[in-house]
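Dear colleagues,

For the upcoming journal club I promised to circulate an example of a predicted protein-ligand complex. I picked one with nicotinamide-adenine-dinucleotide because it came up in last month's discussion. The inputs are reproduced below in full, followed by the predicted structure.
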Amino acid sequence: MQTVCVLGLGYIGLPTAGILATNGYEVLGVDVAERVIATVNEGRIHIEEPGLHTVVQAAIGSGKLRAALAPEPADVFIIAVPTPLNADKTANMDYVCRAAESLLPHLQAGTLVILESTSPPGTCRDLLKPILERTGLRAGEDFCLAHCPERVLPGKILLELIKNDRVIGGLTPACAARAGELYASFVEGEIFLTDATTAEMVKILENTYRDVNIALANEAALICEELGIDFREAARFANRHPRVNLHSAGPGVGGHCISVDPWFLVEKYPDTAKLIRLARDRNDGMPSAVVARTCGLIEGIASPKVTALGLAYKGNVDDIRESPAIPVIEGLRAAGVTVSIYDPHVDDARFAQRGLEEALAGSDCLLVLTDHQEYGAFDPEQVARQMRTRQLYDTRSLMDVSRWKSAGFRVECLGHGGEA
Ligand SMILES: NC(=O)c1ccc[n+]([C@@H]2O[C@H](COP(=O)([O-])OP(=O)(O)OC[C@H]3O[C@@H](n4cnc5c(N)ncnc54)[C@H](O)[C@@H]3O)[C@@H](O)[C@H]2O)c1
């Protein structure tokens, strides 16, 4: 296995291509976006991820990594394209199908095809195998097919690509073993081999576990608000129980994984996945709870203005996919509130952003929607001078409450009934 073709050069595919290239493989990165190909071939990157620029620059510089719009013959094909939701919350597998079809001319006896995209359980067996077998070659006999889900944390992708344990599921045990050999050449974590459908389920279960537990935290936070107590304090003490691990509450769940993957189970098993469905609804309902509380804070103010701190779905990343900040901002605007956005990590033409000073000017409420480090370092006195009304609503437990109160702010926090 000397040559690897990685299909999809996004948050997963590009770091994977870079790491493989720096581990001695001849790597071709393929993407359908011309801008991505041009950027990568110049040794630059189009996404924000610590350390990635250095890796890609070195890989391009060494000649081990190239990018192109179409696949070329390779020993291994890794599919790392998006698996988003359709509007009706069903899995959109079009990208995976198109990527698989694009490699058909290069599929040969002995080729290894790995699906890294997070996919509904059964995808390798029921969707990919029939597509790849259009070549007349038999999966598991002539070529290998495996699923290796990705569990990296954005912001730490390069480290976790190497350090994390990996679960690799093959269409047959031989397919799993073959894929395992590839990952063993650069992964320092343990590698566990299983069948493809189990590996697909493992990834979905990981994210569903987190979604359901976040939903529990969010629900408990709303109950604590009604009780007039602080959820964070209740959770901190509950978590001193040796078998309890309450998660953090927040304005909703975003990103390409946790808010998406549980739907794959709801779609396939609607009568069974009832708890999973309820959890999704609870988390998707959090933005409207945030809108309602923010509106309560600015009630009675003529032509109110809110400064939204954050568009990204979580702190210190530039990813806005499924970000709960977006429905919060839209909900406030629909309620007639002027919202200015300040997110130093995000540059997206769909959301007009202001510089910090302009975003704060005449504002009636600072609304923390993303836990970017920068916000925690704000000087409350300086911020106060630019605002019309000194109010802070922190949905991420990011700000130092006492500092902001000392600067004369009314501070409210998600999960805390009344003033913090
Ligand atoms: N981002 C994460 O943190 C993360 C973590 C674990 C798993 N995943 C999963 O990995 C997969 C990829 O996610 P991502 O975040 O890298 O997506 P992404 O949107 O950042 O990148 C995907 C890339 O694939 C390209 N693409 C689309 N169709 C293509 C095709 N037919 N051929 C070649 N390229 C094509 C797109 O242009 C895009 O650049 C998804 O299934 C996701 O759920 C993502």
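Two points we might discuss: The CA atoms of residues 21 and 64 lie 5 Å apart. Residues 237-413 form a domain with the Rossmann fold fold (CATH 3.40.50.720).

See you all on Thursday,
B. R.
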